Amino acid sequence: MIWVDTVIQGILLGGLYALFASGLSLVFGIMRLVNLAHGDLIVMGAYLILVLVTILGLSPFLAALIAMPVMFCLGWVLQKFLLNRTLGDDILPPLLVTFGLSIALQNALLETFSADSQRLPTSALTTASVQAGPVSLGVMPLLTFGSAILVIVALNQLFYRTELGRAFRATSDDPTTASLMGIKPANIFATATGIAFVIVTIAALYLGLRANFDPNIGPARLIYAFQAVIIGGLGSLWGTLLGGVIIGVAQTLGAAINPEWQILAGHFAFLLVLLVRPRGLFPRAND
Amino acid sequence: MAYSVTTQTPASRIAAIAGVILISLLIALPFFAGRGTIQDMFFILTMLVLAQFWNLLAGYGGLVSIGQQAFVGTGAYALFGVVILWGVDPVPAIFCAGIAALVIAVPTAFFAFRLNGAYFAIGTWVIAEVVRLLVAQWKMLGGGTGTSLPRDATRDMWFIESIESTLGLRSAAARDVLAYWLALVLALATIGGIYWLLRTRRGLALAAVRDNTEAAKSVGVDAGRMKWIVFLTSAFGTGLAGGLIYMQKARISPDAAFSVTDWTAYVIFIVVIGGIGTIEGPIIGVLVFFALQTLLADFGSWYLMTLGVLAVVVMLVAPRGLWGLLSEQTGLHLFPIRRRLTGGKLASSEE
Amino acid sequence: MAPLQTPLLKTNGLVAYYGDFQALFGVDIELDVDETVAIIGANGAGKTTLMRSIAGILRNAATSVSFDGRPIGAQPADEIMTQGVAMVPEGRRLFPSLSVEENLLIGTYGRKSRGYWTLDTVYDLFPILRERRNNPGTALSGGQQQMVAIGRALMSNPRVLLCDEISLGLAPVVIKDIYKAVPAIKAAGASLIVVEQDIAQAMAFADRVYCMMEGRVTLSGTPDTLSRNDIHDAYFGASQ
């Protein structure tokens, strides 16, 4: 019975990883950009929410709601004025610029908030659990998983049901021809990164509510997000969710055997998938 | 007058002479410099080696790795392993460090080469994490907390006795001098080796692959094989440097030996700021890096933040780095690898 | 009956470069309202460069292209499109991630102008597209893809439609089908610039013809004033 419980906790943990990964997947899908600062941006989002909670005395959920437009603007500006300048055939500039950004951001957070670990204030809701048969499920993990599904559904709707989504796909296919449709690729990319930052904020909310965070944990979040994306197959959001779940289950199973093996088990699951399905479980046809 | 193909430039000939003088000075350094200077120079030289190998990977091979700490850490742990478990002398153990890194590099490449471009970068990082976590499980070498080299091993190292008597130093200082000389040899061999590699047919092929994989393939260059050669070479060299660095430190822990900041972030910043894709770039970069570190060391995280921002700015404003700016302005090439036609009538039309 | 009217679209000593390579050397062409102009010339004559310059994919000096009397030469493609200059690019360039219908809909992204052309009227013009509306654009035959590309450009109800090599690589019977759409396009109020390699085809539908060679206009006039020999010389260079 303990195994069923472990697996279910792992699946729910996968929801968190899918949230980490969705923004990464979105940005890569549209402009083939891998943002190495993604994990640090999630941590920054958590600090932003923390600051809003502390200063305005809001609940973390409300604070996240306020943080979203702020983060959207930040993402928009970052893409428009910095990252767009790195796009092109050469993969070095975007990688090195976002890597520099990652280190700069980590240390800016360290300087501002110190290395002490923080946590968003929890309420009765965040510590509650529901009994589902023999298994007890935390409300917070359930909420995280639900949010991940909601984010993925919303992104899919955006992509396949709206004019903006068409513009995203068209620009991703062929920016020059897209500009003949009246699309400004630079702005489309900026908007995409803005949306990714909104998802980053949601991920940051649950990161901060579920566990302690400090300025140094960003890179590990980037790695989990990356693993979820690769396992799922580039460009498939549902695949990303499954990728997150696989990492989550591997980690909780590993931890159940030996607490020191938690992270290692996740990495092994990733390497195993890479070994048997190098293009991920749901690869997109034209990549 | 006959034509001849040469890579020499007047500047490179002057540089060669200046180089011989500089190298002589560097060799003689322990005879007149204090222990602090020797330690600083050791740091500069080992970082230079790491930077040259990362530059070979990313700047020439187009393989952006952020997992070089895998090879530093593996090399370092291999050195500690053979010294502690098998009683090998630390000096020859450095060679084992390189071999161990090479061994780890094979499965790393096998996995990471399945990932394209940007994802290759994170893939190498994941593997470095895996190696770090595995090493932390190795209880005989101290597990997560790490271990030290046994005292008699460091005291009785090769050459130590003669350095002690020649320079009149105590054992710890003599070890620094030995480490410095070894680092100097490694740095010179690295620069010389990479320079040689880039001037051979292989090096030309490498440039071709970097510039245009498809076109290179069509003239018979095996891009996949070149990637393997570059990756394994730089893993071996990085492993040697890792072994040497920790032979000097004589104390190791997984978090330090597999630190992405120390062994990859710094190295990337050195190369980017100095000038990626050139041999001169990392040399300039490591000097700028050391100057910044000396100036800003007291400011802790501000220092790293400055480096990060500086790398971003350089990448956007001057993607060929400081050396790129300099050689664009002056046409200077200290390690010319471009083949130029000289003699005959064409001599003056080049550049 | 408006002899001094300013042309709708005009290039003025247009020069264009690809890096160091100069592709256009002072090209002057004009397009009047309701006119159809054909541009003919051999491969490499600069026809596509001219179209890309007008559409804004290549940026030029502001005054080198004017539309409705306003200089647009320095504007980017998206701004030019918004003012009513749409292009059917060489090679069709459908978006592979979009269905046929989505490819048509994206044509209105920058310009939502009420006019004759809607999804329905485009489907009426090319009925086969209605049947295949949910297919990916790239699953269609070459001729059908060309219809999508034309429909996509029409969706914004452009005042000027630039068509670059719309018959390239298509079977003669398919080309005929596509050119059958030209009268309807003109009737809906668009003026056309069509790049065409087939001289006979160009002569058949154009009000005026420009012939280009090596980045310059070598001949221009109405089809009835141009002799085969003039065109031959302008096309391949004078044969002394």
TrEMBL record, chain A:
Sorted UniProt keywords: Amino-acid transport, Cell membrane, Membrane, Transmembrane, Transmembrane helix, Transport
Coiled coil (residue ranges): none
Signal peptide (from-to): none
Compartments in which it is found: Cell membrane
Keyword flag Membrane: yes
Mode of membrane association: Multi-pass membrane protein
Transport keyword on record: yes
InterPro entries per record: ABC_transp_permease, BCAA_transport_permease
Transmembrane segments: 6-34, 46-79, 91-110, 139-160, 188-209, 221-249, 261-277
Family affiliation: Belongs to the binding-protein-dependent transport system permease family. LivHM subfamily.
Protein name: Branched-chain amino acid ABC transporter permease
Organism from which the protein derives: Ruegeria haliotis
From TrEMBL, chain B:
Protein keywords: Cell membrane, Membrane, Transmembrane, Transmembrane helix
Transmembrane segments annotated in the record for this chain: 14-34, 41-60, 66-86, 93-112, 118-135, 177-198, 228-246, 266-290, 302-323
Cellular compartments annotated: Cell membrane
Domain of life of the organism encoding this protein: Bacteria
Membrane topology: Multi-pass membrane protein
InterPro entries assigned: ABC_transp_permease, LivM-like
Pfam families assigned to the protein according to its UniProt record, in alphabetical order: BPD_transp_2
PANTHER family per the UniProt record, alphabetical: ABC TRANSPORTER ATP-BINDING PROTEIN, HIGH-AFFINITY BRANCHED-CHAIN AMINO ACID TRANSPORT SYSTEM PERMEASE
Name of the protein: Branched-chain amino acid ABC transporter permease
Organism: Ruegeria haliotis
Phylogenetic placement of the source organism: Bacteria, Pseudomonadati, Pseudomonadota, Alphaproteobacteria, Rhodobacterales
Automatic annotation (TrEMBL), chain C:
MF GO annotations: ATP binding
Keyword ATP-binding listed: yes
Homology family: Belongs to the ABC transporter superfamily.
InterPro entries referenced in this protein's UniProt entry, alphabetically: AAA+_ATPase, ABC_transporter-like_ATP-bd, ABC_transporter-like_CS, BCAA_Transport_ATP-bd_LivF, P-loop_NTPase
This protein's UniProt keywords: Amino-acid transport, ATP-binding, Nucleotide-binding, Transport
Protein name: ABC transporter ATP-binding protein
Membrane-spanning ranges: none
